[in-house]
Design a protein that fits this description.
This protein is an alpha+beta fold and 219 residues long. The protein contains six helices and seven strands.
Length: 219
């Protein structure tokens, strides 16, 4: 009887020791190595690697441009005060945003590294088909892609690639280009002219819009 009691106590102690060891092992496995790994993966996941480049560093024309999200359009838009001529209104400028970048912005309220914006230029046509008054978009003349990514442009945080109408790849404009300076100085949100994009305008900070409303002349 006594021997059984001793053995029972020994088994109980042994069982508790196993439980303690299991608990300790579980706690250790949940601490350090795994948590940083998950955080690192999440950080990497935030970057959008949807921009593709040729071997010599040129941005390739995305194949899915027709699926990008419409942000806004303008006709004959200019940044300096000039007289608008209704008979020759200039070009339509249409801005789209890469779908993954748009979804990220709507969820997080900021641009993910690798976000892309497309600005396309179309001639204006006043007599096409049944149209007799006003203007419709005619042919595409050229387009540019604005890439927000400090990995590609460490000093400026963004790069601009200008494509001719049929071009399938383009080089980045030089550092310190007028496009970069203008966007950095007058873009309402993170170097983009979000003040002109009704699709996302309501999702940027009100104070940013207030500053943009007071910005009238960039000469």
């Amino acid at each position: 009887m006594r021997m059984r009691a001793v053995l029972s106590r020994a088994a109980l102690v042994s069982g508790l020791s196993v439980l303690v060891l299991l608990h300790t092992s579980s706690a250790l496995s949940e601490s350090s190595p795994t948590k940083p790994t998950r955080v690192a993966a999440a950080d990497a996941k935030d970057a959008l690697d949807v921009a593709h480049f040729s071997a010599d560093g040129q941005l390739m024309k995305p194949a899915d441009l027709t699926q990008w999200v419409f942000l806004g359009a303008s006709l004959g838009m200019g940044y300096n005060q000039t007289t608008f001529n209704p008979a020759s209104p200039g070009q339509f400028q249409v801005v789209l945003m890469e779908p993954n970048a748009y979804r990220y912005f709507m969820e997080h309220g900021k641009y993910a590294p690798g976000s892309m914006f497309l600005l396309s230029f179309y001639n204006a046509d006043s007599h096409r088909s049944i149209n007799q008054v006003g203007y419709v978009q005619a042919d595409l003349t050229n387009f540019e892609i604005h890439l927000v990514d400090a990995r590609k442009a460490p000093e400026e945080g963004r790069a601009f690639y200008v494509f001719g109408g049929p071009a399938t790849q383009a080089r980045a404009l030089p550092k310190g280009s007028e496009c970069v300076r203008c966007h950095a100085g007058h873009g309402a949100f993170d170097g983009t002219f979000a003040q002109f994009y009704p699709t996302i305008r309501g999702h940027i900070p009100p104070e940013a819009l207030e500053r943009a409303l007071k910005d009238h002349d960039i000469r």
